[in-house]
Write the structure tokens for this entry.
Amino acid sequence: MSSEARPLLSAIGLGMIRGERVLFRDVGLALRAGEALVLRGANGAGKTTLLRILAGLTRPEAGDVARGAGHHWIGHREGLKPQETPREHLKLWAQAWGSPTDSDPALSRMGLARPADVAGRYLSAGQRRRTALARLLLEDRPVWLLDEPYTALDAEGRALVDALIGEHRARGGAVIAAIHGEAGFAASGDLTL
Amino acid sequence: MSPAPILAAFRQSLGEAWAGGAGALLPLGFLGGAAVLVPLGIGSDGETLKAVGPGIIWVALALASLVTLERIFQADAEDGTLDLWLQAGAPVSAVAAAKTLAHWLSAGLPLALFSPLLALMFQAEASPSLLVNAGLYALGSLAFFFWGGVGAALSATVRRGGLLISLIALPLFVPTAIFGALAMSGGPGSTGAPLFLAASTLFACAVAPYAMAAALRLAAD
């Protein structure tokens, strides 16, 4: 892995206005294989907005994003329906992405073997979070965009996230995560908004 | 482009429509309730009921579509599913069309299939034309659902968007309602009306998905 390789994801001159306030301006980044970037900033600094711009969900006011590889998106809303069980959720997205993965390994890896057949409305916040994170394991995509991945997770869950990120980087993947407080993994860079 | 995301969206929406065990029963109950209330309101005169029956069923179909559609995109926007669909790699218009179709199959089509029974409640004579009418109701309600879907997508991030959906969608229902009622009237011009009804439905199916896609992208922005 040479750092001269084409970045998996890069952005230049990103600027965003919300209402009449400039959220951020002239933000640039380049993410290469094996790198992990941590986004920091106070509440309302625009971490989520920047991640949504990188994911292509929000159009920036200025600047450009170049995506060289597929990405996974784990937003702060899990995308789990009230009537959906973790098993159904993973099956649905595996089907939607056309990856014939068996969801059982992802479920047991995330510690969801027991509540795998419990409807979303009865799951705890941490279990819902783990279900969303299990989507990362369904399909191997080079870039992970994670919005506050530790939210609602217990110590074991946070360690699990760190382990997943470590393995992903070792495989040549890259991660951008908006994180409040300390990241459990050794980030290769910080971006403060 | 693989059809997998579109099929998955269809499957998820079918599950959603039937969640809680209500499914088609809720709109059917609504339509049944409306059919019982109307004779109480306008009297039980057979001729009058026969005259207003088809119109009442059209109105009930329109309202049932609005009631059903209120939450289809709003729930997705709230729980984060919309973000996932926008990144699923399929055209958003196709995903939106699949979701709308799933809701029409679980709410619109059953209503249309039950319409002969309701027509009998409105003193219509039992005849094969009731079955033809059921087909016309099915065709028309498909247009209602697609236009209603546009309203639902536009108000996806609006709290209590139900009224907004109605304001947006009801004017778009007009051509369908006109040709649908004309086709059943048996009066002058009624022979060509089913074709115009079909055309208005085709137009809805062709245009509405793109409007829904644009609105959903805006909702996520």
Observations:
- Chain A touches chain B at residues 52, 55-59, 71, 73, 75-84, 88, 92-93, 95-98 (CB under 8 Å).
- The first strand of chain A starts at residue 9 and ends at 18.
